[in-house]
Design brief:
Layout (H helix, E strand, L loop, with lengths): L16 H7 L3 H12 L16 E2 L4 E3 L6 E3 L13 H13 L6 H8 L4 H14 L17 E4 L15 E4 L12 H6 L7
Antiparallel strand pairs: 1-2, 2-3, 4-5
Helix pairs in contact: 4-5
The site of zinc ion has 8 residues, from loops.
């Protein structure tokens, strides 16, 4: 962490779950983080243009102390309109970005204790879209893909009953650019290189 005001957006990233808990342990710290992200130079009222710390209202609203205009903290972010705590969103972000092998909607639902699979699916897709680097290039040249599992349905067997041959570990060293249009390569562009 760079200073006492909390983790700096775009600079500080929790390396461990303990660090995540220390930085984003409460709704207030998560809200403060989003506020710093939206107004890095400090809150400025979009209505009257006056800078100054706003009053915190209920339902995620900030109120300008000069003109009284209420501004939603999450407007224009992927959290806009959410009824869930920001802390739960932050936990989802931590989980999605810290799992080496990616995360499924079902896995996210289980970890967060979300009531519906649809919510988990929506969250996951919002987060994946948000992780796309703007202006990124398409894959070209030689593309290296980490080891992955390639499976297929096996006749007469369902789910976990499938024989060991159904899932085989695939360890390519290099993949030609000609294959860059495959689903696997496309999904790889979802993720920042740090993942
Ligand atoms: Zn104002």
């Amino acid at each position: 962490m760079t200073d006492a005001s909390g983790p700096q957006p775009g600079i500080d990233y929790p390396r461990t779950f303990q660090e995540f808990e220390a930085w984003f342990g409460s709704e207030a710290t998560c809200r403060a983080y989003v506020q710093r992200l939206r107004w890095p130079e400090g809150f400025t009222c979009p209505a009257c243009g006056v800078a100054g710390e706003p009053t915190e209202m209920s339902r995620g609203l900030l109120r300008c102390r000069t003109c009284g205009r209420q501004v939603s903290l999450t407007a224009g972010t992927i959290f806009e309109g959410t009824r869930k705590p920001l802390r739960l969103w932050f936990l989802a972000m931590w989980f999605v970005t810290s799992q080496k092998n990616g995360v499924s909607a079902l896995g996210l639902q289980r970890v967060l204790g979300l009531g519906s699979y649809e919510t988990a699916w929506t969250w996951l897709h919002k987060l994946r879209r948000a992780m796309i680097r703007p202006g990124r290039d398409t894959l070209h040249g030689e593309v290296e893909v980490d080891e992955t599992y390639v499976g297929a349905p096996e006749e007469g067997k369902e789910g976990r009953k499938a024989g060991s041959k159904a899932i085989s570990q695939w360890r390519p060293k290099r993949m030609a650019a000609a294959s860059a249009g495959s689903d696997c390569a496309k999904s790889a562009t979802f993720w920042p290189t740090a993942c």
